[in-house]
Amino acid sequence: MADFEDYEEIDAEYGSEHRAAYPSLRRIMELYGWYILLFTLLAVFIYKKYVAPLIHSLAAEKELEERKKYDMDIRAHNEERIRAARARIQAQYEVDAAREVERQRRREEEALERAMREHGIGGNVASHRKNRGSESSKEDFDGKSFVTNKINSIPVVIFSKSWCAFSRKAKQALSIFRLPSEFYEIIELDEIENGDSIQDALLCISGVRTVPRVFIGGQCIGGADETVEALRSGRLNSLLLEAGVIK
């Protein structure tokens, strides 16, 4: 029995020593609670004051860089499309110019042959009759009806001049959409007989006589600058959608 009591005393002493070596959580909080609280508050303050803004700033810079890269990619893609469209227009312009030169040469040769066949004075008489007929056709031509019929029957019409840089600018803006020929017509006023009468009609209809004049869905949207600005803003795409030219 005595031996058993001795064991209990030894266990009690060992337990008290063990508890002394490992203090309880309550004891730790009593001794260091304020320090822990202050350290936690300080860490939260430093995070909110310095770390969090730095993280947000880095994230914003990264997002800005990605956005700039995306914008540059889009701009490069659009510039490539514009360059390709300009190249197509220039090539078509050169082909049309060569054809027009050839047609003019043939007309001159035919006129010379007719004059030679009619032996001089006869050629002059024939030429005079031809000029009178041409003047008569100009008097009979109604420029306003011509313009009205064109813009009401064709969704997209450009009144242009083949040598005009501003006209090329407007045509380049529209060429990006690759409009079908049945929905799109370019009228070169310097290549047709009644160009001046048509320009007078444009003044009555749109308030401006100069070219280019761009009509979409029967409405004049302006000249070269207005067309390019409409392309940049997305308004040109909307107008073509409303006119049923693109999908």
Overview of the structural elements:
Helix 5 (165-175) links the parallel strand 1 and strand 2 (184-188). With 247 residues, the chain is an alpha+beta fold. It is rod-shaped, with a radius of gyration of 43 Å. It has a domain at 143-247: Glutaredoxin, CATH 3.40.30. The chain has helices at residues 2-21, 25-117, 121-140, 143-153, 165-175, 195-206, 224-233, 235-242, and strands at 156-160, 184-188, 213-216, 219-222. 14% of the residues are buried. 75% of the residues lie in helices and 7% in strands. Helix 2 (25-117) crosses helix 3 (121-140), helix 2 packs across helix 5 and helix 5 runs parallel beside helix 7.
How far apart are the first and last residues' alpha carbons, in Å?
Answer: 104 Å
CATH class of the domain at 143-247: Alpha Beta
Task: Compute the average pLDDT.
Answer: 80
Order of helices and strands: HHHHEHEHEEHH
- Uncertain segments: 120-130
Report Rg. Answer: 43 Å
- Percent of residues in helical segments? over 70%
In terms of DSSP E residues, the strand content is 5-15%
CATH architecture of the domain at 143-247: 3-Layer(aba) Sandwich
Quote the CATH topology of the domain at 143-247.
Answer: Glutaredoxin
Placed side by side, the strands forming the largest sheet appear as 2-1-3-4
In the CATH hierarchy, what is the superfamily of the domain at 143-247?
Glutaredoxin
Q: How many β-strand runs?
A: 4
SS class: alpha+beta
Shape: rod-shaped
User: How many helices does DSSP assign?
Assistant: 8
What's the main sheet like?
Answer: 4 strands, mixed
Coiled coil: 60-118
GO cellular component, one term: endoplasmic reticulum membrane
Organism: Parascaris univalens
GO molecular function, one term: glutathione disulfide oxidoreductase activity
